[in-house]
Automatic annotation (TrEMBL):
Catalyzes the reversible conversion of ribose-5-phosphate to ribulose 5-phosphate. Coiled coil: none annotated. One of its GO terms (molecular function) is ribose-5-phosphate isomerase activity. This is Ribose-5-phosphate isomerase A. The active site is at E105. GO terms for biological process: pentose-phosphate shunt, non-oxidative branch. Belongs to the ribose 5-phosphate isomerase family. PANTHER family: RIBOSE-5-PHOSPHATE ISOMERASE 3, CHLOROPLASTIC-RELATED. Keywords: Isomerase. It is an enzyme of class 5 (isomerase). It comes from Pararhizobium antarcticum. Substrate binds at T28, G29, S30, T31, D83, G84, A85, D86, K96, G97, A98, G99, K123.
Amino acid sequence: MDAREMKIKAAEAALSHVEDGMRLGIGTGSTADEFVRLLAEKVAGGFRIQGVPTSERTARLCLELGVPLKSLDELPELDLTIDGADEIDPQLRLIKGAGGALLREKIVACASARMIVIADETKVVDILGAFKLPIEVNAFGLVATRHAIEKLAARLGLSGDIVVREASDGPYMTDGGHLILDASFGRIPDADALSRELNAVPGVVEHGLFINIASLAIIAGPSGARVLEAR
Ligand SMILES: O=C[C@H](O)[C@H](O)[C@H](O)COP(=O)(O)O
């Protein structure tokens, strides 16, 4: 089974948690895209859901495939969000944001009664941090904000490059018009503390640590999909 087939397996398993009539948060990324494609087939067959997309990219795919959408302001309380992740630890803490959608993803997931993460085996880790941690920041005061992050990281015993994410035509801009700092901290022994400290930095709009948000993870490997619940 190749990587795409594993993503499809996880997406298929997640679809069985979606009930007719649900208000559904719809994630961003290659795994979430597979979920959208499967969901669109069900919608074409008469299944009724109302989706809230977590990015402009996901909104475009949903519109193209006929998945009905609402804004989060129209549907501020959701039944379920299905989304991918970059890393998942045994407590179901996540790193998200490789696709730059972390802010809307976190807002939508937190507006949902449940969040189910879908991923392939490569995303499961014992300790978060091998993956760069995306931190969404306001462009104003970028250098000061980065210094503040470096200082708090040092207090927590973390170090590593913190670089502005680039696109082909200049700094990468999120859907909200912010920049992203990618922090290569390496292993993060206390993700909860790092999350709290980052939340307290003026200029940090949001970060990619999702703590106590996911309820379940569906992990696909070569032999099929398995469910992970928080330990
Ligand atoms: O901003 C992007 C998101 O957090 C994605 O859900 C995450 O990067 C996983 O994406 P993929 O399914 O493509 O690995």
